[in-house]
Here is the input.
Amino acid sequence: MLLPMAKIQIIGTKRCRDDTVRLLQQLGAVQIDDWRESRAVFQQRMTLNDDTINRRERLAHIITRLEAVLTALPPVEAPPWPTDEKYSDLPADQLIDIVASELAEIAPKAQTLTNERNQLEEQLGSLPRYETNLRHLLPLVPALINLEDYMVTAIWVERRYTEALTLITAQLEELTDGLCEVITSDAAQDDKRLTAVLVFPKTHTEAVNALLGRENITQVRLPPEFANQPLEQALSHIRRRLRVIPEQLAQIKAQQESLAQHWRPRLRTWQALLQDHLARIDVCPDFGQTDYTFVIEGWVPQQQLPELTTALARDLNGEVIVTRSPLTPDDQPQTPIMFANPGWARPFEPLVALLALPKYAAIDPTPLMAIFMPIFFGLMVGDIGYGLILLALMFYLRRRFASRATLRSLAEVLLFGSIWSIIFGLLFGEFFGTLGTEFGLHPLWFDRGHEVQALFLLTLGIGAGHIVLGLGLGVWESIRQHNRSELLEKGAMLVSLSALFLLVAILTGYLPASLLTPVIGLLLVGLAILIFSLGKLGFFLGPLELVSLMGNILSYLRIAAIGLASVYLAMVANALAGFVGNILVGLVVAVLFHALNIALGAFSPTIQALRLHYVEFFDKFYQSGGQSFRPFQRSAKY
Amino acid sequence: MEIGLIAIGAGLAVGLTGLGTSYAQAHIGSAGAGTIAEKPELIGTVILLVAIPETVLILGFAVAAMIILLLT
Here is the structure.
């Protein structure tokens, strides 16, 4: 069901504008439409004055700074800050000043901690690499004593390019007139690389660096803090650092958490309040204005209109009035929609919205989906054991995702489905496939694993009923909206389909053959109206529509197909477990197969039941294209 | 022999329509994945488009079932 909406106009004196906006935000019941040129000629779009524009900039700036601090603090479980009332009535400028002074205290602390943490984490990542490099260089160290006027550079050479080292040595000797040394040793090698140390006069540093750069030779560089230390000292220093860094990191994390525990709730509250101030400014250009008044146009759920009117009249001394405009057909595409379904149907709203929201004043298919989808799901799974496991799992997931609306809804949808699975499990006599029969479980209705024909007829019957219901709703919708061509098309489909059902009944001997002529006549009449309603291409499209209608009904066979697949997989699981011989191994095999079947059983029937609704059912009556109701409200409840 | 031929016929009815459906779904699915990456709100339409060719497979299944049920 969709809530009836009222189109309203709020008009007031300009001096009451800010109070009105604040009240509307508090009530959170009005969706404000953007100002349009087509409004009355004496209205103009409201513009912001310089003061307000400045205030807006300050608000945006402080919110950005605040969000930067929030990202620097780790998320923690902290109760909401209870002392927010003293801030909620403050004017924007005053709140900005308070938050700015508080940010001046917290921002540097949070930033310093973040920087330190980043630095330590970076060192934790890079120092082990330096440690490996130094370990490889260490065997060369005894050769590097007292070389004050000489430069020492370590280089890596890939093992497969070892010959390059000979070339480099030759070039280096030529460059330094033989005053150089290239030291390498077997101990300084690993699987992939060879480490070598070059010693040359400091005066040639630039030329050597250029040579190494030209030849694409990687120089081993140490972090600046270790650069001027002897290698052995640097190595032990690095190892010491690697030992203490985790401890320092833990300390910093603890400090960040305690800071977050104290500041996060405050920052969140201020963020919400500041965003509310910003939203109150940003909404104003959507208003119209005359010399002395402001005009707001928008939507409110009809049931909240009296409350809105009373609140505005009471709080603004009658200087602001609400008038309700009549809804014209032109308004319909813009009218926002809001679901108002009973609790049992609400979890199915996101599934309807997943396809597209219904148009205002059109049929909301949510309750119908809430009835049929779990039945289809149950028919496909149809097993007491699987149903019970899914039920327990969905109860758990429902609680686990209590705060995440969509996941919770999905768990509830499957929860209804698993209840129907248990019911159909009883009707088909299935408990983990054929396992129930071993313990004397008998089908209350029929055994779908063996009476396949009955299962096919059942699903086709359900399909026919569902499609006829869809067409019936389509006919009703077209009558309500005075849409003649739609009425003709849907009505003709309904007549033709009924004639086809009767034809099948005659051919299978359920009805006397004498009815054949009138039934064929009915079919032709239905087809003729269908062809007429479809216009010029009707001769091609009419019969095609009828065939596709039959295809739609046959499509419900998927309920039987998926159901049979589930039955046979369960049978295979039990049979395989029996073949193994060893009870324990057999049990493991059975559990694995049944687990696979349950996983498939949760996923595939959901998608198939959804598809039957989206493609086969909705197509007959559903009118999409609505937009969700987005009231102007506070950014968070605090 | 006859049972074997019936089984092969039923298998072909499901198998070939399955191949056809999977070919169509592969193409629609990859285009759909691209669509969702750019416009996540179209996920419902994409599911619908991916689901449409399945009818062919269901019809194949119906034919296979008829072959088995009517001929054995």
Observations:
- The interface with chain B takes residues 353-356, 452-453, 456, 551, 554-555, 557-558, 561, 607, 610-611, 614-615 of chain A (CB under 8 Å).
